[in-house]
Amino acid sequence: xxxxxxxxxxxxxxxxxxxxxxxxxxxxxxxxxxxxxxxxxxxxxxxxxxxxxxxxxxxxxxxxxxxxxxxxxxxxxxxxxxxxxxxxxxxxxxxxxxxxxxxxxxxxxxxxxxxxxxxxxxxxxxxxxxxxxxxxxxxxxxxxxxxxxxxxxxxxxxxxxxxxxxxxxxxxxxxxxxxxxxxxxxxxxxxxxxxxxxxxxxxxxxxxxxxxxxxxxxxxxxxxxxxxxxxxxxx
Length: 235
Description:
mainly alpha, Tetracycline Repressor, domain 2, 11 helices, about 0% strand, elongated
C-alpha cells in the first residue's frame, strides 16, 4: 500500500519541496564555510559538494555552477544585512527627505546606525559566525565580480545614509570627498571588529553581550566627540 497524505505515516514525511529547500540551505551553509576558508579560486566544486553531503549533479541542479553558488551565498549574506540594518536606514532617509533635521537628532541617528552595524558584525549567536566573519574579511581583498552586489548593498544600507548625516553635520554634500572620508572612518570603527585579531587583542575568543554593549558605547562616544568638535556645535 502506498503512503499518501491521508495516511498517518505519510503525513510525517516532509514534502518534496521542503526536502529540496533543506538541501539547498545545507549546500549554502557548506559553501559559506568552504568559500570563507579557501576563497573563491581555492574552492573546488568537488569540495563544495562533499562538504554539503551531496553529489555534483545536485549542486548543479540548485545553483548551476560554482559562480552561481557563490552569488547565492553573497545574496543570502546581503539579505541578512538588509534585514538587520534596513529599519534604521529607512528612518534616516524618511526623516531627511524634506531637508536638514536637528543636529542632535542627526547625531543620535548616526549612533543608532553604528549601534545596529556593531550588533550585526559582532553577532556570534549563530553557529556560522566565524565563517561569516572570514567571508567578509576575504571580500575586502578578493576581486570577484559577484562581490559587487554585496558592496552595493553595504553602500546602500550603511554608507549612503551615514554620508547623508555626516554631510549635514559638517555642512558638506553627502558625496563630497571630505564627507566620504569621515563616513568611511566612522564605519571603520565597526568593521575592525570583524577581524579575529581584534578579538585576540581583547583577550577573548567570543564577544559576549557585555563586550558588544561596551563596543557600542565606545563607538558612540567617539562619534559624539567628533561632532562636538566639528563646527563647534554640541550635539
